[in-house]
Amino acid sequence: MKGLIKKTKQHFEGMKDPRTQCPALRHSYAGMLAMVAVAMMFAANGPTAVVRFWTDIAGHRPRRRHGLLRALGLAKLPSHDALGRVMATTDPDALDQAVQAGRRLMDRRGTTAARHRHIAVDGKACRGSASPVNGVEAALVVNAIDGDTKRVLATMATPGPGQEVPTARKLLRRQDICLDGAMVSFDAAPCCRETLGLVRRRGGEWLVPVKGNTPTLRDEIMFSLDAAAAKPVTVCEKGHGRLDTRTVRVVTDPDTCEWLGRNHGCDGLRTIGHIVYITEERGKKPTREECAFICSRRMGARDLLAEARRHWGVEVAHNRLDVSLGEDACRVRTGWGPANFAILRRFALDWLDTLRGKDEPLPAAVSRLLCSFAVVAAMEDAAMAAMEPSPPREHRPTWRGAPPRGLISKASARTGHTQWPWPALRAQRQRTDNAGAAPRDGRHIGK
């Protein structure tokens, strides 16, 4: 546990403390961030849950509490109000860059950005931060996720409602994300000339679905596919109690793609396609969905389906955040608190992926880590108790016969729970020895 705390704390050592520096500050800034990040691994969904987690871990063992506080660099556990104020005032961009820089350092990649084959840019709402009564909408964060490893590469908070597209562009400009040769996929919202041009200037390729926000482009894509008589490719998969059928049509004609790209601001368009999804489950009616796609890389039907499915895999990460780590249940609403908790929650998810075994479910990994922490804590307590010296035992004289009269009370004699007055007996023996006479009752005390 202490090793995990120290490794987590290293990510936040160089961050600037947003609090006003004064002698009243008692808690380390890096220690408080590490405290929240470690608690996020075990589904602590707010400041109160974070404090409760650390209180339960420490228990009623002062030595264990002192060891955890020393690893965190704190003098005492901060209150939930102190944690909430710190998380509300922390800059989310600086926090995410510190997390990513520390992660690259731990992976021994230095400052060189790694190459990725597919990067999915997608937004996610923290639904628990919404307040319909007060007219407050849910906070939104935009994530860049590796399509192969499902690892979060960067997270940025939107400054307000309707700012998802500008935030996505700001995310793509970050220099710690390498887009060279990568396929960058979006939702339908960022399908505009500026966003697609930014991806091409940074050396990447783009894949965008075309939906109702651009009806003219969608209609012209469908007309071009019908005119070219594109041959459909069907892929069937059976599993999880359902049968999935996907039908893909693709057109890569240069003249058609160039004409569509020139008319709709999609410079570099090389492929247009259309995918139909039909899902059949026993006892339910079949469902049918369809979507058109545009891409700047020339590819066939199966390749287009594979790239589209990598983007759909982002929903798996969203499900893990909501179900296993309770992101939608987090009701933090103050300042940048929702975004900062979302960043640390994704950081915790990556830590869990590193610590869990192959094919081990995430809830099982969380339970195993909690059990291992409890076992280690119990072993430490037993070891420290064994190292403590036992108090010296005092030599007490033994009785030969009945105790002298007058040294025990009548109530003690009746109950049988006698507490022998050894100091008084020693004093009487010394007086008797000094006087050279026998005790009054004619008996003696054994040595």
Structure explained in plain terms:
The protein is built from 16 helices and nine strands. The chain is α+β, with helices and mostly antiparallel strands and 447 residues long. Strands 3-2-1-4-5-9-8-7-6 form a nine-stranded mixed β-sheet, sandwiched between helices. Strand 6 (233-239) and strand 7 form a beta hairpin. It is elongated. Residues 109-113, 411-420 and 441-447 have low confidence and may be disordered.
Tell me what portion of residues adopts beta-strand conformation.
15-25%
Q: Strand count, sense and closure of the main sheet?
A: 9 strands, mixed
Overall pLDDT level: 81
Question: What is the molecular shape?
Answer: elongated
Spatial extent as radius of gyration? 35 Å
Quick summary:
With 447 residues, this protein is α+β, with helices and mostly antiparallel strands. 44% of the residues lie in helices and 15% in strands.
What characteristics describe this protein?
single chain; 447 residues; alpha+beta; disordered C terminus
